[in-house]
Specification:
two-stranded antiparallel sheet; mainly alpha; single chain
């Protein structure tokens, strides 16, 4: 069900990146520090369009294996050179990618899969990623994961409720452990303190930064407008994900997503909107029972309307449909 009206989501990070770069520039930071954000914006938008426009078989493959990729790449940071004993980044030439911030939302794609095995795998991989957060350490991402997964795990629609609550408690407990392992890295003004710089720049810059940050929650609010249970839980989870990702920056030296310099959070934001739009396209709630059910003798459902991808976002989408010719005499119009 993603149509041309969802294409505006691709541009939502632009104001946040622009405000962050402008505020940093006022404090003597080169605009070039935000080039990774722009590169991630382009790559993220292209990837989102490609996956949303793909065949259902590709979407099923993504729900099965992108959570595995998220775990493997995040865990790979533990064997890469760290900074003062902190291992959160993956070296990519002259850049360092915050792996968890870039890939964490793909775990939620697995959790909302219609396949029970894929959902269970994604939940177990979330536990594995949380252990990696403790080892890195990364208290911010550990808290973000625990908060974002809570509505999905405790809602009873994705997995069996008692199992989900147990996993949610485990994720919250591991997040608490991660907070007991603070790092000694000094904050970077245009990464971790960009909101502080906005406040120091005046009330108008503070308002602009606040509005840009609030706009980043638009995809989650879009998902929360539906009456479908799993989609509503996904929207609530990713809404908490975004709020906590911003909120934890006031309790430690943690990167401010999208507004601060860095490619990882921007890629993660595009992963988040991709997960939401894919879910909006298939609003049927998955069953939490992996065992075969009794045959359904109810009347078959009508076929869903043809899916329109973001490729249809063009001038023609804004034009009115041509009028239908009147029915010829002697023929019944249908």
């Amino acid at each position: 069900m993603p149509t041309a009206r969802h294409a505006w989501l691709l541009l939502v990070p632009v104001p946040a990146i622009a405000v962050g770069a402008a505020v940093a520039s006022l404090h003597g930071v080169e605009i070039a520090a935000f080039l990774p954000n722009v590169l991630a914006l382009v790559l993220g938008a292209v990837g989102a369009i490609a996956l949303v426009s793909s065949k259902p078989e590709v979407e099923q493959w993504a729900a099965r294996w992108l959570p595995v990729v998220a775990f493997v790449v995040t865990a790979a940071t533990l064997v890469t050179p760290g900074l003062d004993g902190v291992h959160r980044w993956l070296p990519l030439g002259p850049l360092r990618l915050h792996a968890s911030a870039a890939l964490l939302p793909w775990l939620f794609l697995g959790m909302i899969s219609p396949e029970p095995r894929a959902r269970t795998r994604a939940v177990l991989l979330a536990c594995g990623v949380q252990l990696v957060h403790v080892a890195q350490p990364d208290a911010a991402q550990a808290t973000v994961l625990a908060a974002g997964a809570l509505p999905l795990l405790a809602g009873g629609k994705i997995v069996e409720r008692r199992f989900g609550i147990l996993v949610a408690a485990l994720l919250l407990g591991l997040a608490a452990v991660a907070w007991t392992r603070p790092d000694s890295l000094a904050p970077v003004d245009h990464v971790e303190r960009i909101l502080v710089l906005a406040a120091e720049s005046g009330q108008w810059w503070s308002a602009a930064a606040g509005a840009a940050a609030f706009g980043l929650l638009a995809p989650a609010m879009l998902a929360m407008r539906t009456s479908d249970g799993p989609t509503l839980q996904l929207g609530a989870g990713l809404g908490l994900y975004g709020c906590v990702a911003i909120g934890v920056t006031f309790f430690g030296n943690h990167p401010v997503p999208v507004l601060g310099a860095g490619a990882g959070p921007v890629l993660g934001w595009y992963a988040m909107i991709t997960v939401i739009v894919l879910r909006l396209r298939v609003p049927t709630a998955p069953s939490s029972d992996p065992t075969p059910s009794t045959p359904d003798h109810s009347p078959p459902r009508s076929s869903p309307p043809p899916r329109t991808s973001w490729r249809s976002w063009s001038v023609s989408a804004l034009l009115p449909a041509p009028a239908r010719p009147p029915a010829s005499p002697g023929r019944t119009a249908r």
